[in-house]
Amino acid sequence: MKYHTQWFVSFAITAVILALPAWAQGGDETHVSSSSQLKFGPVPNSPACVTAAAEHGDPSKGPSTLLLKFTSGCAIPMHWHTPTEQLMMVSGSARMQTQDGTASTLERGGFVHIPPKHPHQFTCVTACTAFLVSDGVFDIHYIDKSGKEIPAEQALGATKPKPAAKKKAM
After folding, report:
1. Domain ranges in the chain?
2. What DSSP letter does each residue of 70-86 carry, written as one string?
3. For residue 164, what is the DSSP state?
4. pLDDT by residue (tens digit) across 89-121?
C-alpha cells in the first residue's frame, strides 16, 4: 500500500472513531458549526490555561465533542476520566504521560484513545489546539503520586505560577 493510501485509510479510521460518540447520541440531524459561532470558556476543575468550546453535545449531560485551546506550557496534572476520552491534535505540540511513566509526544494529527479511569497527564509544549471526544459526562479526577484521588484545588495548586519574590528595601 502506498504512503498516500495508508494516510487516507488512517485518516478515515480516525474520523469514524471520532464520530462514534456522536452517533451513539442518537442524533439524526446534521450538525455544522463554524469557528465564529464557538464560545470558548473555562473547563470546570481544570487550570485556567485551557479553554473549551462545545462543538457537539453538552459535556455536563452526556457524550460531546469539544475544541480545546491550551496556552504554551499548560499542564493538566495526573488525572483520569469516567468516560472514554479521545483526543486529536489540531495544532501545536503536547506531551502525554501515563501513570506507569510511558510518555508520548503529540503533534498535529496525533491521536490518543484513553479508556475510562486510566491515569494520565497532559502538557502543551507549545500553544496547542485539540478536539476531545467523550462518550459520557465529562469529568476529571486528579490523583497524587500514590494514585489516591485528591481535590482539584490541591492538584491545581502545583500548576499555578509562583509569585515573584519581593525585593528587600535598602
Report:
1. 3-26+35-157
2. E-TT-EEEEEE-SS-EE
3. P
4. 999 999 999 999 999 999 999 999 999 999 999
Q: Pairing mode, if any, of strands 149-150 and 141-143?
A: antiparallel
Distance between CA atoms of residues 93 and 161, nearest Å: 21
pTM over 0.70: yes
**Which grid cell is 4?**
498516500
CATH 3.30.420.10 fits 3-26+35-157, yes or no: no
**Hey, CA dihedral for 144, 150, 154, 156, is it positive or negative?**
positive
Closest CA to 78 of 23, 37, 117: 117
| pLDDT grade for 35, boundaries at 50, 70 and 90 | confident
pLDDT attached to residue 158: 62
